[in-house]
Amino acid sequence: MNLPNKLTVARVVLVPFFIFFLLTDIVPMSGLWALVVFALASITDALDGHIARSRNLVTNFGKFLDPLADKVLVISALVCFVDMGLAGAVPVIIIIAREFMVSGLRLVTAGEGVVVAAGIWGKLKTAFTMVAIVVILLFAVIFGKDSAAYETWVIAVEQTLIWISTALTVISGAVYLNGYKSYINTDK
Length: 188
What we know:
Largest sheet: none
Number of strands: 0
Order of helices and strands: HHHHHH
């Protein structure tokens, strides 16, 4: 268990804390705490990859768990946003469907001894979506968690960010499917 893998595991461990702070008002300034925890978890994503590559600590475990940890973090935030009225169900369903598709692709290729590492489109999708979530969380801190109190421009910015994330998600999913289509045998 090297440092990058520990950071990835830490990201997964932070998810329940993020959800707790985001969906509760028990703790003072819970929205701010949710923002801090999500930002910290997002930073571990950048750090673990950088450390793994720069110190030659890339492992199959890390290639598998890193994107899974990202999915758990991002999907948790988006589902909470739907519950809070901060995101629509349609883009979130599209994003979740893509994540299941890529995870299924990883399982199929793993059976062939191939690990599907995150490509540039997947990394761009993840980075943009995490930044979008941070912005939406920042708005929740500034305006309160009740989306009914939001100004029209705030809602427009949030929805634009969510739909750009959705578009990047679809593009990256298509790139993965195209790149690994030889592992998808439709004859069996």
